[in-house]
């Protein structure tokens, strides 16, 4: 957590006994020069993972109000820092997450005003799709986001179908999670709807695509893929040389990293430019 940042916890109930758990970094109302930012973590990520509280806290210190969310199906429940809801993780689709965004945007008590969606990795795909669907959104920032969610070989897809699920191993803890084959079939059935490059173009909103030049999980070329159909006047790509997929941040949090600080700087500058027109 960034020093000097006020953080409050909040929950929003979704149908089917789902909950979006939220941390709000910054004042109840953003500063007059600030922006409401909705942060969406990536696959196997969560709002309290490693350096994300610090990262979002830095944005809050710059005058913005940052809402960090755990999607209702991400698998991290009341524990806030472990996968205590693996049955939800197994069934999580992009569609579930987009529904969650709608609920967050529509929550009167939270009162987001013209928010920018900030998504890391898979969270950037959720941000892109949501930007097309919900007119309340004012812009999108992606960090280390792939141009396409499905990056499996045909053999891997067939194995997933044959077994009915696939294993997802947490490299840090060795914990084994699973994804049901319904997640695969949902994606294949809705590929056009889930196309992030198309969604970003159709949203007609400003987009900032940040990527680490040394990203070991998602090729840096993905930033260009995301912006391929976006009006050049609305899209900006920033490659942070040497940065990895999490921009030097780790879980547990081991302190700030220059790559993450650079990402914060890029975001703050971009937001300032967008507000000034």
Task: Describe what this molecule looks like in 3D.
By secondary structure, this protein is of the alpha/beta class. The chain has one domain (7-276): Rossmann fold. 33% of the residues lie in helices and 21% in strands. The chain contains nine helices and ten strands. It has helices spanning 52-61, 86-89, 94-105, 122-133, 154-163, 181-189, 196-203, 221-227, 258-276; strands spanning 7-14, 18-25, 36-40, 65-70, 116-120, 139-143, 165-169, 176-180, 207-212, 235-240. Strands 1-2-4-3-5-6-9-10 form an eight-stranded mixed β-sheet, with helices on both faces. A hairpin with a 6-residue loop joins β7 (165-169) and β8 (176-180). α4 (122-133) packs parallel to α7. The chain is globular and about 55 Å long.
CATH class: Alpha Beta
Distance between the termini: 31 Å
Compute the CA-based radius of gyration. Answer: 17 Å
How many distinct domains?
A: 1
Report helical residue fraction: 25-40%
- Supply the number of helical segments: 9
CATH fold name: Rossmann fold
- The CATH H-level superfamily is Alpha/Beta hydrolase fold, catalytic domain
Low-confidence stretches: none
Strand order of the largest sheet: 1-2-4-3-5-6-9-10
Broad structural category: alpha/beta
Could you outline the blueprint of secondary structure elements for this entry?
Elements: E1 7-14, E2 18-25, E3 36-40, H1 52-61, E4 65-70, H2 86-89, H3 94-105, E5 116-120, H4 122-133, E6 139-143, H5 154-163, E7 165-169, E8 176-180, H6 181-189, H7 196-203, E9 207-212, H8 221-227, E10 235-240, H9 258-276
Parallel strand pairs: 3-4, 3-5, 5-6, 6-9, 9-10
Antiparallel strand pairs: 1-2, 2-4, 7-8
Helix pairs in contact: 3-4, 4-7
